[in-house]
Design brief:
Length: 239
């Protein structure tokens, strides 16, 4: 395991099993979290999304939930090494059952960077922990949306990211759990490339209307676009 400094005095503990990529930064920015929000990050892994939210305008409370004890231990190590009073509560729990005392119907925002592959899709890793992180083994997309619905208040927001081939699955799961897709943004490496990721926001018990935002391009010439650099390096909200 190793520590990575996200900003001065703020650390995430990463390992071969529980690490993170660019998608975590993009989802954090896309979520447009606010200081007054109560938040839950489902399948938090090493806690990268709750920790990124501490870089600026930290929400007043964040529950960071994962079924794997090793992941929650890494998050606790990151919190312990960081300076200040981080507003993060690590929770080792199965999101299909939630946990005793869970703030049902009380949260403003739920985020999730879910397993990108369906249960039967692709090649399974020999490592059971990697299987849970990459495939819908411990939970399905429907389970995730159901948990989000249970935690959110009326018109609370649910933000997630996933591969474009799963877009129909995600939207169907949201609607099946009374979360209406409201905002969608595709992410591509360059304008010439097909999208490799989508960012989607749904609202609990909202009326149908889906806003399609301009695509986000990650690279221009030899480096990052200015928008991508802002999100990944400075913690700005993704508009």
């Amino acid at each position: 395991m190793e520590y990575e400094e996200l900003k001065k005095g703020l650390y995430v503990c990463r390992s071969e099993i529980h690490s993170f990529g660019t998608d975590a930064f993009l989802l954090t920015g896309f979520s447009r979290y606010r200081e007054k929000d109560r938040v839950c990050d489902l399948g938090t892994g090493c806690g990268i999304i709750p920790l990124l939210m501490q870089r600026m305008h930290a929400p007043r409370e964040i529950f960071a939930v994962d079924i794997q004890p090793d992941a929650i231990d890494q998050l606790r190590q990151g919190i312990a090494k960081s300076d200040g009073d981080l507003r993060i509560t690590p929770v080792c729990a199965d999101l299909t059952k939630l946990w005793e005392g869970a703030p049902l119907g009380q949260l403003d925002l739920v985020t999730c960077n879910p397993p990108y592959k369906a249960h039967q899709a692709g090649i399974l890793s020999e490592n059971a922990q990697k299987q849970i992180a990459r495939h819908e083994i411990a939970c399905s997309m429907d389970d995730i949306c159901k948990a989000a619905y249970q935690l959110l208040n009326y018109h609370g927001r649910f933000c997630l990211c996933c591969r474009p081939e799963r877009l129909a699955d995600v939207m169907c799961a949201m609607r099946a759990n009374r979360i209406e897709p409201k905002r969608l943004r595709m992410v591509s490496k360059t304008p010439e490339d097909a999208p490799w990721l989508f960012l989607l926001e749904g609202k609990k018990m909202a009326k149908p209307f889906l806003q399609i935002e301009p695509a986000l391009y990650m690279r221009s010439g030899a480096g990052m676009t200015s928008e991508a650099a802002q999100i990944c390096h400075f913690g700005e909200h993704l508009s």
